[in-house]
Specification:
The complex is a heterodimer.
Chain A (H helix, E strand, L loop, with lengths): L18 E5 L2 E4 H23 L7 H20 L10 H16 L11 E2 L2 E2 L8 H23 L2 H6 L9 H42 L4 H42 L1 H4 L9 H15 L1
Antiparallel strand pairs in A: 1-2, 3-4
Chain B lengths: L2 H5 L2 H34 L7 H21 L5
Helix pairs in contact in B: 2-3
Chain lengths: 288, 76
Amino acid sequence: MTLPYIFGSGPTVYVAPQTVLNFHGLTVTNSELYGWGIIVVILVLFIWAAHKVKLYPGKGFIGFVEEGVTFITNLVEGSFNRPGVGRKYVPYFVTVFFFILFNNWSELLPVIGDAFRHGSAPLLRPFTADLDATFAIGVVTMGLVYYASVKESGGFGIYLRHFFVGSPKNPLYFVIGLLEMFTDLTRVISLSLRLYLNVTIGMIVIDVFAYLGSFAGPVTALPFYLVEIFICMLQAYIFTVLSVMYLAVAVNHAHDHNDLSHDEYLTEDELPETIKAEPGKVGNAGGV
Amino acid sequence: MDPILATLNISIIGKGLMIGGGFIGPGIGIGLIGGNYLQAVGRNPEAAKFLGQALIFVAIVELFGLLAFASIFIVK
């Protein structure tokens, strides 16, 4: 599709991936091709980085990986109101964060678009600039979130219970609970659409401003290029933090309903000795 | 055919209206989020650590602007 422009036909922009290979009836699109390439790059870089981890923080790429892993670990573990619950979900969310981050940043390399062509279609396209890809990531993530919420709540009934603020027998709370369940189902679509649109429109904006600048294209596109570096990082962070939040809300609610009795509120008899003795001590000190 | 309709390209006007109208809402929304965040930091400097959570709401609001931008590609 070409964007119309007052002086000419405009830059050629692609909003959907195109087929480049036909392998025994299995079509391979350009986004899949680039996605596999980025997966290989990520595997090589991270296996190399994992062998280089030392006690003291490294520099360069290893330092960046360590910072990212620490950041996501703190994010996941801090979201749950009971310590130790989030630890086992850290590897998945770290993987998702770095996978999306590297695929988003791959839109900034000059190899995409019209650099290499296969017939009428560009050979390479960022993996996250493909709605199928982001939808797949969203389905897998929300599948994990639902599975883990049911498991952590301790049963499907208790999991369903957290949608209802009060008693489900009250008609108002019942309707609100049904609405909450419906909103839950739209999360897959909103997660995947947000990622796809941000990356695709980022590409288009860079294209358009490089075209408008004509011979000074690199200069006019530079500000948007720099903004895109930030946006790509932000979108990877947003995807991770939103899915962690969906998981944490379901798990924390279920625990709120279940076991308030022993963890949160101590009775008078359970108070440690030191706290009980405190008022007497203060009184004595005042007397002296 | 009506001479005005023959010279006007209505689909371009439609695209312009879609982008313009679609970006008003997210523009106001992101402005409100940023302004309220700065106000909160001004009143209570410890609230500065909630920048990440403010950015989440920016991303949620921004989705609707991007939807408007994406819709122009289906207008012929």
